[in-house]
Amino acid sequence: MLVLAVKYISLHNEDDIWLSEYFSHHGINFTGSSRNVLRFDSNKISAKLNLANKGIKTAEYFMAVPRQYKCANELPIKFPLFLKPINAANGNGIDDLSFVTNYTDFESKVLSLYNTFNSPVLVEEYLDGQEFTVAIINTSSNELIVSPIEIVPPKSKNGLRILGRKVKKDDSEELKSIEHDEMKNKVRKLAIDSFLALGVRDFGRIDVKANKTGDCFFIEANLVPGMIFNSSYFPKACKIEHGLAYDKVIQLILENGLARVKPKVPPNKANALGQ
Q1: Looking at the structure, do residues 41 and 78 belong to the same domain, yes or no?
Q2: Model pTM above 0.85
Q3: pLDDT at 129 over 60
Q4: Quick one: 90 and 64 in the same domain?
Q5: CB-based contacts of 15: which residues, under 8 Å, 6+ apart?
Q6: 175 and 165 in contact (C-beta within 8 Å)?
Q7: Are 127 and 115 spatial neighbours (Cβ–Cβ below 8 Å)?
Q8: Are residues 110 and 226 in the same domain?
Q9: Contact, 1 vs 27, CB < 8 A?
Q10: Among 256, 226, 247, 197, which Cα is nearest to 29's?
């Protein structure tokens, strides 16, 4: 059995090799989700559309390219807005300038992201509440171990708490238990609903954000989440919520994958059984 640690391998002047697709095609067992499901990780819009169609709340959004909208009145959603790449990970492209309150700043950030990532920009309504992430493991007994935690980025010089590339690189955010049971239950339910609706297999991390009134919204799915010891959100969430040691988290993920392996009967025993 193989552990899926990356989604694909990029080749020069050739199509990417999606490892889950390659393994499935060659009958190789692996941990993690199928190629079809992993598209929800690589394309935030695809995940949002899928869940919205199933009645799961996600932040309002639209896509934008430079000079598509001529003035603030043409924008589908009113300010404040939050801008980020459609398919980047690890907070890439996200900083204080992602939060915009006027058309000039909006157009400037759209142009910057478009030039950097060479793709349309995801524009969401700005949610001004708490930020959460939820690690989920589907065990070999088909039970979900759900670990919701709150993420508190440091305040920037502009007084914003933006979970962007620099914050993640510096490890300056605080990860902690969710204090209020009502909020924890809402975050937990939304994450489970999203996990199941997307068809995630084995494990995944669901990001959730709230507004000031406490309504929770799906933000994105991380289906090949980082697993770095003492650093990545996934094992940290399992430790904070359930006290699970790093080795135990990896063991649980491996056990579910191994449970799919059909035991091979030795030839001599197979003959004895009349197979």
Answers
A1: no
A2: yes
A3: yes
A4: yes
A5: none
A6: no
A7: no
A8: no
A9: no
A10: 256
The pLDDT assigned to 271 comes to 56
In total, the chain counts a number of residues equal to: 275
d(CA 173, CA 190): 23
Report the distance separating Cα 226 and Cα 208, nearest Å: 17
**Residue that finishes a domain, picked among 101, 126, 151:** 126
In the prediction, which pLDDT does 192 show? 98
| Average pLDDT of the segment spanning 176-198 | 98
Q: Is 142 exposed, middle or buried (0-12, 13-18, 19+ CB in 10 A)?
A: exposed
Cα separations in angstroms, 24 against 14, 34, 35, 221: 20, 8, 9, 22
Q: Which residue has the tokens 């068809």?
A: 199
* 273 pLDDT higher than 60: no
Report if residue 169 sits inside a domain: yes
Over the stretch 201-230, which tens digit does the pLDDT of each residue have? 999 999 999 999 999 999 999 999 999 998
Asked if 175 and 143 sit in the same domain, the reply is yes
Domain that holds residue 86: 60-126
Residues 198 and 241 in one domain: yes
Same domain? For 112 and 194 the reply is no
